[in-house]
């Protein structure tokens, strides 16, 4: 537990010791603002809520979270520090958890910094802040799922660019698996339960109710399971790679 | 005394390549084992298996009673390890890095501060405590790597080429450090620098193409040399042929070789028949002959020659 904490602290500090953290936060805030005000037309909707803010999160995360996740393991492999890390008396699970939690907290910091949008709607109207809080919590849980997938991909390579691109593709598949464009491809030949299963994996479907302020337990369990399974695979990847 | 590190039949295969092939040896407390071998002979792979970074394909490593494959964490707690090239988190500052290692090794509070403080003093890195590691010179980086390995005062030290890339002063410093610690720890250092053997090691293990080809003391290694106990004499060039003939008749001298000539002084080398000491007989004969010699000394053996002989024949 203490070693997980040590890794967590080191990782979180390392985001801020390079320009990465600041670049990421600025781009995240600027693009989430742009999406909300221009594409989401938050003013024109005339409603005091943040639905037009949250609805773009799955698409923002698609590119920004793989950018955070790509360095998690690939950088360690490239610099050879993974040998240092793996010969400390720390289990692979502790290391995976420490790194994941640090990146998750870092993303949470970026998400929390969007609070001026929340202040704006509160100034202009009288929103249901419970719904907004639910939106933030749901958005963070989904971010965790993206992150766990990205960390898992990063464990396989020492090239951060490859880690980024593959993670974007994997996240894109999860994101769009509920859309007709993907499902139509399977519907022609796959049995109905397969199509349903693929549709059920969609981040968009699970997130859509969260943006309306409804945190359904099954959505939380879904994202939680994605995180759990991806981190489990992450540990396995590290262990398998060790043997080779 | 019980052996602290025991390797038995340690083997590592990468696909069709056998990098380490049935290596067995043990290291006791108070021993400094010099692990010698050409580049690519399997030194680093062996060390990675001892420290639990790589799982062995066959055989085992037991560290103070803990099998590294079965209880990696228990073994790793007892080991201080300097990996090849001393990889470090370059974006961290030296102090923060050492605090991270201390935290990861489960230290906290006053104990952590005391240990970090004492190791900083010991390897003399106090002046770079607040510098990012990326900006340090190679010597400082290596010392930070050593500090990281020594932080928890481990029973066992595994150092992969600890003096690689250091200048002679830094090498001297690192060797002193290793020698000081040698009394109460079991230490393995890998190197391809032969002078290092004499300088710090109490035992030598030579590996070539993944197989052990020698295990003994550095002295025994020197005895393998054809030049062990040979006597070199420096004498004016015009006297050299006569003196060579004289010495050639001394009992125990197998042959006499003429070496290089510098500034009119030739070095001649008397090689003993079976490695026995001939220096007394030879110097007596030189005295009787009445020739004025510029210098005379007994060679202990040429490690580089033994090294080539052991590792090239494989």
Proportion of beta-strand residues of chain A: under 5%
**Low-pLDDT windows of residues of chain B:** none
Number of strands of chain B: 14
Overall average residue pLDDT of chain A: 89
Q: How many separate structural domains of chain B?
A: 2
User: What general form of chain B does the structure show?
Assistant: elongated
Distance between termini of chain A? 28 Å
Q: What is the SS-derived class of chain A?
A: mainly alpha
Name the CATH class of the largest domain in chain B: Alpha Beta
Shape of chain A from CA axes?
A: globular
Strand order, biggest sheet of chain B? Answer: 6-7-8-3-9-10
Under CATH, the topology of the largest domain in chain B can be stated as Rossmann fold
Note the gap between the termini of chain B.
34 Å
Characterization of this structure:
The complex is a heterodimer of chains A (244) and B (314). The two termini of chain A are 28 Å apart. Chain A has helices at 2-17, 20-39, 42-45, 51-54, 57-69, 71-79, 81-86, 92-112, 115-124, 129-154, 160-176, 180-187, 192-200, 203-211, 217-243. Chain A has 15 helices and no strands. In chain A, helix 8 (92-112) crosses helix 15 (217-243). With 244 residues, chain A is mainly alpha-helical. Chain A has one domain (2-243). Chain B is of the alpha/beta class and 314 residues long. Chain B has two domains: 3-223, P-loop containing nucleotide triphosphate hydrolases (Rossmann fold, 3-Layer(aba) Sandwich), CATH 3.40.50.300; 231-298, Alpha-Beta Plaits (2-Layer Sandwich). Chain B has eleven helices and 14 strands. Chain B has a six-stranded mixed beta sheet with strand order 6-7-8-3-9-10, with helices on both faces. The longest helix of chain B is centred in the middle third of the chain and has 14 residues, at 109-122. The mean pLDDT of chain B is 86. Chains A and B meet through helix 1 and helix 7 of A and helix 2 and helix 3 of B.
